[in-house]
Amino acid sequence: MSLSARLLGSLAPWRAAPAWHIALSGGLDSTVLLHLLAGLAQREALPPLCAIHIHHGLQAAADAWPAHCRELCAALSVPLHIEHVQVAPGASLERAARDARYGAFATALGVDEVLLTAQHRDDQAETLLFRLLRGAGVQGLSAMPAQRVLGAGQLVRPLLNCSRAELQAYATAHRLRWVDDPSNTDERFSRNYLRRQVLPALLSRWPQAGANMARSAAYLSEAGQLLDELAQQDLAGAEVAAELAWLPVPSLALPALRGLGEARQRNALRYWLRPFTTMPDSGHWAGWQALREAAADASPVWRLAEGELRRGDERLWWLSGDWLRTPPRLAQPVCAEQIVQLPGNGHVQIRGALPAGNWQLAYRQGGEQMLLAGRGRRDLKRVLNERRLPTFVRDRLPLLLLDGQVMALANLSGLHGPADGRWQLHWQPPTSDQGLS
């Protein structure tokens, strides 16, 4: 079957998409993908095509690539959009450039639109080998998915069943011109070393190694999907709503996880934590065991790359963003219906009519007491214990004071205002997401 026919078959599920965007670097692989699609568009009813070139500005040679892409797209009558990005400095230039590139792609995609990239079977084998050497688990060893969500649309890799040799033969037969990235020869980069030294040696001994590794990645992808389905089943009993419905922090009921074996606990937590943080390595999972086994009155913390997992009231709570920073001390005069922004801690509002007096917002400092109907004065610490408020919330829970005396605790039913409901203290806490806090 020809490359063109195989490409059309792999793209069948997305024929009704509003648009197809082609990630065009100007190199061999993306040039072949563009040429194939432009040819198919002449005889098939395809979604509108356009190309996107990302200019990273990381090397002098790249300055000539946008002009090359313009000439190529003009010859094929495919619109081209060129996006300039800034690459954030960091330990891995490759990763930073990739993050900038895919961030620009995500922004460019409209709802249900598709980004087509030109990774092929040899790239898949390279990715599998690279991740194997880094000690990846099943999810990592499934390598590059054929499709995934990107922004408001989908990222699709329609050439994963094609070899680089096939793309090279197609380019030669059609006399295509492409650019060569000088950085691809720099063997200080691990992927380049694998591509130029390790894979050729493997292929000289086992000619089918590339195809076999790509097939293994597909098997591992299926295994990963099955593990995800198992995690969803195991999490069903743990994702019951917390009593504190006003607390916008992801959480799980711990007893449901305790009933699972160790491996299934880790699998469920990996699945649940995946949207929040990169996964810990195998040695770091001792932090989970310590969190799980800590005494009931302890406040254990498991610190991960992008946040931390806390335990409280037999629940696991994921904290990130503002929740990891102590808000500045609060001593804020307040009046009724006023919305007060709390630095690093959301905002509060008093709903209803406050009596005259010296009203003030504050946080707990220790030693406070509160007058409770029929119970007299009670230490605030004991009151919060009775309400089973997680410890990470207590020092940022807004208090309403009158002449220095605690009159209300935000959001806690029966304690957030007088019994007659004349006024209530409402708090909108920060989210547990850095982008939304």
TrEMBL record:
GO biological process: tRNA modification
Reaction catalysis annotation: cytidine(34) in tRNA(Ile2) + L-lysine + ATP = lysidine(34) in tRNA(Ile2) + AMP + diphosphate + H(+)
Main location: cytoplasm
Family, as annotated: Belongs to the tRNA(Ile)-lysidine synthase family.
Function: Ligates lysine onto the cytidine present at position 34 of the AUA codon-specific tRNA(Ile) that contains the anticodon CAU, in an ATP-dependent manner. Cytidine is converted to lysidine, thus changing the amino acid specificity of the tRNA from methionine to isoleucine.
One Gene Ontology MF term: tRNA(Ile)-lysidine synthase activity
Annotated binding of ATP, by residue: S25, G26, G27, L28, D29, S30
Enzyme class: ligase
Any one of the GO CC terms: cytoplasm
Matches recorded under NCBIfam families: lysidine_TilS_C, lysidine_TilS_N
Residues of the Lysidine-tRNA(Ile) synthetase C-terminal domain: 359-427
EC number(s) given by UniProt: 6.3.4.19
Keywords attached to this entry: ATP-binding, Cytoplasm, Ligase, Nucleotide-binding, tRNA processing
Locations listed in the record: Cytoplasm
Stored Pfam families: ATP_bind_3 (PF01171), TilS (PF09179), TilS_C (PF11734)
Domain statement: The N-terminal region contains the highly conserved SGGXDS motif, predicted to be a P-loop motif involved in ATP binding.
Keyword match Transport: no
PANTHER family recorded: TRNA(ILE)-LYSIDINE SYNTHASE-RELATED (PTHR43033:SF1)
Coiled coil: none
Gene name for this UniProt entry: tilS
InterPro entries: Lysidine-tRNA-synth_C, Rossmann-like_a/b/a_fold, TilS/TtcA_N, tRNA_Ile_lys_synt, tRNA_Ile_lys_synt_N, tRNA_Ile_lys_synt_subst-bd
Protein name (database record): tRNA(Ile)-lysidine synthase
